[in-house]
Structures are given as C-alpha cells and as structure tokens.
Design brief:
The protein is α+β, with helices and mostly antiparallel strands. The strands form three sheets. Strands 3-4-5-9-6 form a five-stranded mixed beta sheet. Strand 7 and strand 8 form a beta hairpin. The longest helix has 32 residues. It is globular, with a radius of gyration of 27 Å. Bound molecules: zinc ion. The site of zinc ion has 4 residues, from helix 18.
Length: 695
C-alpha cells in the first residue's frame, strides 16, 4: 500500500507541473503515429518518462491487486501492455542518444537510466506479480492458449525465473550480490584492458624506422606523437594503429615487439588473471543458484543451439573441417615469403605482413578503384529493388514524416496490394552527434492492441561519406555489404507479423538474429545482381567482369585462417564456462591445453588471449562467441536454397518470409529454421562458400 501512495503522489506532482504540452505524451498527429521529432525538445524527456513510468506502475499494481483469479488476459497480456508507453518514450530517447546526441543529452541519460532501471526492477522483482504469473503458468494446460499466447506466457515466466524470482528471500539477496559483483568485475576487466592498451607506445624518431608504412599510417603516427607532445611518430595498441603497423612495417624487430606487447596485455601488469577466475566463478555460482549445473546450461537454454553439447560439437566439427585449409594457407604464405627472400619460419608477427604483401600482388584491387561504381543512391536503389523482387515491397519517399535531423530521410513501405507495412528512416552520414558504426533499430515494434495493429517504425543508421557539390556519396565494397547487412535486419523488423511487441521483429535469440542480415550480404556478391547496380557514377558504365571476379576471389582470401581464429575464440569462451568448476590452471597453460592441435602459427610463451577477451569477460558474449560462426553456417545454408532455386525465386523468398522474417520469437528458432529448410542446418554450404575450389 505504501508504494501505491507514493506513486499516486508522484503522479499528481508531475501532472500539475505539466502546464506546457509535452509532444511525447500526446498521440502524434501524423497518420503513421510516428514520433513528432519536429516538436520534441530535450526537456520533454524527463517528465514524459516519469509520467509514463507512473502509469505503467499503476497498471502493474492493477494486475497485482486484482481480486479475480489470475488469467492469461488479466495478468500476462496486461503486463505485456503495461509497459507500452514507457517503451515508446524510452525507445525514442535511447535511439536518439546513439544517432543524434549532445553533451546535455548524455547527462540526461545518466539521470534517466536509474529511473528506467528502477521501473524494470519494480516489475522483475515484484513478488506479488510473479505469484500471479506463476499461477497462470501452472494452469496453462487448461487455458486453451494460441501458440503465440503460450509463447508469451513461457517467455514471461522464464524471464522472471532467470532473474531469480523463484529464489528464497535469502537466496535472492545472494543472487543480487553476485550480480552486483559481476558487473563491477566486468568494469574492472575493461578498465585493465584499456589501461594496458594505453600503457604501451612505440615511439619512433628516425624516418627509416617507418619503412613500409603508407602515408596515412605515418600521419596517424605523427598525430599521436603531437598529442603526447613528442617528436617523431607514436604507434599504439589501438586497433587501427596496431593492425596497420603489423600489416605494413618492414621492421620485423619492431613488429615482434608490438605483437608481444599486444598479446600479453593484462597478463602481468594491469593483470586480469585473478579477475577472469572471479568472473567465471561468479557466473557459475549464479547459474548454480538458479538450478543449473554449469553456466553454459543457463546461458544457452534460450538460444537456438539450446545446450553446450550442441555448441561444442558444432565448434569442433567446423574446426576439424577448417584446419587443413588454414594449414595450406599458412604454408602458401610461408612459401611466398621465402620466394621474396625471407628466411626461417613465419612467426605470428610475420603473418599479417607477408599475407598483406601476397594479397596486394594477387588481387591488386584497391578500394579507390572500386568506389566510383558504388554510389550510395544506386546501392540503396538495389536493396529496395531486391525487397520488391523478393517480397513485393515498395518504398515511397515520405518527406511529410517528421525527422530528428535534416540528413534523415523517411520511406513509406507498402506491400504487394498497397497496404501500409512500415516506415523506414535512413540516416546515412556521419556527424558529431552520432556514434560510429552502423546499426538497425526501431522506434516502434510491430504489435496489435485493442483490435488495432501498429506497424513497425524501423531505422537504419550508418556513417558513410557525405556527398559533396560534385561527388555523390561513394561506398567502399565493405560499406556496400554493411548496407545490405543492416537492411537485412530492417526487413526482419518491417515484415513482422504478430500480436506482442516483445515477441516480434528482431527480438529473437542471439545466435539467430544475424541470419536475416548476413543472408542478404550474399546478394551483393552475385554477379547477376551486382551488374544491375554497380555502375560508374560518371560514365554510367557497368562494373567490368574482371573486377567482379576479384571482389569474389578476395572475399575468401585466408578464409581458413580467419575461421580457425574465430573458432578458437569460440572454443576458449566455451571452455571457460562449460564446467561445474572454475578451471584452476594458469591462463596461458589453460589456453594451450584447450586449443592444442588447432594452433597453427608457433605458440609464444608469455602471451595469452583471455586476459584481454573483452567480448566475453566484459561484454555480453559469454558462452556466446560461437554465435558469429553459427549465424554464418545458418545464412550460408539458407542462401544455398536460394542458389538452388534461383536467387530471385519468389517461392523460396516466400518461405523465408513466412517462417523466418515474419515470425520473430513466436516459435523456437530451430523449429522456424526447420520449417524453412526442411531440415537442420548443415555446415557444408559455408565450407563450399569459403573454399569454392574444394569438392
Ligand atoms: Zn547484424
């Protein structure tokens, strides 16, 4: 009761300070009910979030205080809709904070995040609410739920349980303490990696020490030196600097020094040795508390792979298949180096250098030569036309829809028979207020409520070169595939068909979410399609066949070596987490034992990978690194069906849409995949794609 009083009070307080109209709290007056970006001001967010949180909490209280027996409708569905308005406001705020932020907005984010978290905890740690959810879950067999309803119930219940709702009050406390320690330990891990990365610099003062470095690398080194008020050039362990130096520097001694510094980060100074054990132990304790024997059992339960045995088998099998290719590639580079007068055995600090030299000689394909064939307009037209061919979608510019920056363009997406399907916001060019990278996000997921369907508002954000007065925006080939990739995620959002926002669109298992995006990249490599849009922006000539051949061939350069590395990371990640005990071995020894026969370049004592493996020890990829390769196997296997039936085959596209793109998380990913493909995924298609010469 106390809580309820407090809420009512807050509610009154905010409603009387709301003299000015807050556009975030009104029903938008455009026909799509899209966010009124033209009217939203930064000062609108806080009152809107507070207000919508209050409303949501009241709705949650209505559920918990309902004297009637809990039902699917008065509990599970009511809870799903309780957060509707909060999500709407939060999505606008957090999306803008990535795509168009400011110092004030970042400060505001610091202020709003605790409010939002507090609301989430109000739901997830609410014993009365969980009791009702549990009751519905227990009685589900008598409820005659539709498949979608049953899924929502399952996911809601699991969400509570996986957050500790089923624990005794004492265990809940322990669980909370573990989570807190875990988040602190992860922060410390990142801090150490950053400190170790910054602790090393290679300071060069003689011009001859720069031999082999391209101009941009020299400039980068000069700038870094100037920033440190030093003479000469400075190279660091930040990736662009480190990676470039390893690739281009002819100075083997310096490459060795840098490689060793990079690969021994956080081993001794700024050590992460103890932290790794601590993090692994905390994860294990937390899984044990929730009733799982190993952390991997907990982490994989809701993924497509479902259990550690499947993941381990997947990684080992692919490793076995890939190793001969990787060994052959290394031998080829070794031979090439010898032919150029290099004596002795290739060491890890030689590999990047010699493989880059070999690549230049073999493919002589520069980004600059390709770019004139890939103007952004043409590439966008290509993905739109692909969506029309495969799924009957049409894109009409919708300048009447409000945007948050003049660079943003909106398209109204309609289906075959002209019905409104989605809005697509595209925001292509870099600016100070945008973070780097490329991503897809939504301002609204597709869902239905009170007999009305809300179609999705999808956004595609990138950092491509802005056009000038004389030159259009020209993309590198890797930017072309980035656009295809993100547009694939967009289609997953656009084509969603479901009732509940938490189950539609891209809200799927992590090892499944990259299937719709990665599969689309394949079309960018298909000569039949590539020729239709790769047209020189000045003379209108189609891209020469020879260039297409080189694009395709260079894509698979060192594919085996690269795949072995990715698999090693996946295997290592699993090894740390797939045990009912914390591995006691010293870290370099543990890595050597785990990776054993898959190490193809000489192993160097005193180095390790785990101590700077931030994806797994500071990011969200624990027992999840395998998903990168998993998704590749899926997309290659799925695309193989398009290759067999024709890459523009409407029937295959129809199946992909029906079973994958429209279904979100309404069914298990493995079930959806089987419905599309008629069987489980097999790695053969990926192997054929990476090693086409091999039969
Ligand atoms: Zn992606």
């Amino acid at each position: 009761m106390k809580n309820l009083l407090k809420i009512t009070f807050l509610f009154l307080l905010t409603s009387c300070t709301m003299t000015k109209n807050n556009p975030l709290l009104e029903t938008p007056d455009n026909s799509y009910q899209a966010p009124p970006f033209d009217r939203i001001e930064l000062t609108d967010f806080k009152p809107a979030l507070i207000r919508t949180i209050d409303i949501a909490k009241e709705q949650v209280d209505v559920i918990t205080q309902n004297p009637e027996t809990p039902t699917f409708s008065n509990t599970i569905e009511a809870l799903e809709y309780a957060g509707e308005e909060v999500s709407r406001v939060a999505m606008i705020f957090y999306n803008l904070n990535e795509a168009h932020t400011s110092e004030q907005m970042q400060e505001l984010a610091q202020e709003l995040s605790p409010l939002y978290t507090e609301y989430q905890l109000y739901v997830s740690l609410n014993p009365a609410l969980f009791e009702r959810v549990k009751e519905v879950y227990r009685d589900q067999s008598s409820l005659e739920l539709t498949q979608e309803q049953a899924r929502l119930l399952e996911e809601t219940y699991k969400g509570f349980v996986r957050n500790g709702a089923n624990l005794s009050p004492e265990d809940k406390k322990t669980y909370g303490a573990i989570q807190e320690q875990l988040s602190l330990a992860s922060l410390d891990f990142s801090k150490n990696v950053l400190a170790a990365t910054n602790a090393y610099t290679l300071h060069l003062t003689l011009e001859e020490e720069l031999e082999g470095l391209p101009v941009y690398m020299k400039e980068m080194g000069k700038e870094a030196a100037t920033a440190l008020k030093k003479e000469g050039w400075v190279f660091t362990l930040d990736y662009p600097s480190y990676g470039g130096f390893m690739k281009f520097s002819t100075r083997r001694d310096l490459r060795e020094q840098m490689w060793k510094a990079y690969n021994s980060r956080c081993l001794d100074e700024n050590s992460n040795r103890e932290l790794i054990k601590k993090i692994v132990s905390l994860r294990l304790q937390s899984a044990n508390l929730l009733g799982y024997e190993k952390y991997t059992d907990y982490a994989l339960e809701q993924r497509m792979a479902k259990n550690p045995e499947t993941v381990n088998r997947f990684l080992q099998d692919l490793m076995e298949k890939t190793l001969p290719h990787a060994r052959r590639e290394v031998a080829e580079i070794q031979q090439y180096a010898r032919s150029k007068g290099f004596k002795g055995l290739l060491m890890p600090w030689d590999f990047s250098y010699w493989s880059e030299k070999y690549r230049e000689e073999k493919f002589d394909l520069t980004e600059e030569a390709l770019k004139p064939y890939f103007s952004l307009d043409k590439v966008q037209e290509a993905v739109f036309s692909l969506a029309r061919t495969l799924y009957g979608l049409h894109f009409r510019p919708a300048p009447e829809v409000p945007v948050y920056h003049p660079d943003v363009k909106v398209y109204e997406v309609t289906g075959e028979d002209g019905q409104f399907t989605a809005l697509l916001y595209v925001d292509y060019y870099p600016r100070q207020s945008k973070r780097s990278g490329a991503w897809m996000t939504s301002y609204r997921e597709q869902y239905k409520h009170n007999g009305k369907e809300y179609r999705p508002l999808v956004s595609l954000v990138t950092n491509f070169t802005k056009p000038t007065a004389t030159t259009p925006s020209l993309l590198t080939f890797s930017e072309v595939t980035t656009l295809f990739h993100e547009f694939g995620h967009c289609l997953h959002g656009i084509l969603a068909e479901g009732s509940y926002a938490s189950l539609t669109g891209t809200s799927v298992a992590r090892d499944f979410v990259e299937l719709p995006s990665q599969i689309l990249e394949n079309w960018a490599y298909e000569p039949e399609f590539l020729k239709t849009f790769a047209v020189h922006y000045q003379n209108g000539e189609a891209i020469p066949q020879e260039m297409i051949n080189k694009i395709v061939a260079s894509k698979n350069y060192l594919a085996g070596f690269g795949q072995v590395r990715q698999l090693q990371y996946g295997i290592l990640d699993m090894a740390w987490h797939d045990s009912d005990q914390v591995p006691s071995m010293d870290i370099p020894k543990f890595e050597e034992t785990t990776l054993g026969g898959s190490i193809i370049l000489p192993a160097i004592p005193g180095t390790a990978f785990s101590t700077a493996f931030s994806h797994v020890f500071a990011g969200g990829y624990s027992a999840g690194y395998y998903s990168y390769k998993w998704a590749e196997v899926l997309e290659a296997d799925a695309f193989a069906l398009f290759k067999e039936t024709g890459i523009f085959n409407r029937e295959t596209a129809g199946r992909f849409r029906e079973h994958i793109l429209s279904r979100g998380n309404i069914e298990d990913a493995d079930v959806l995949y089987r419905k599309f493909r008629g069987r489980d995924p097999k790695p053969d298609a990926l192997m054929r794609k990476l090693f086409p010469g091999d039969r």
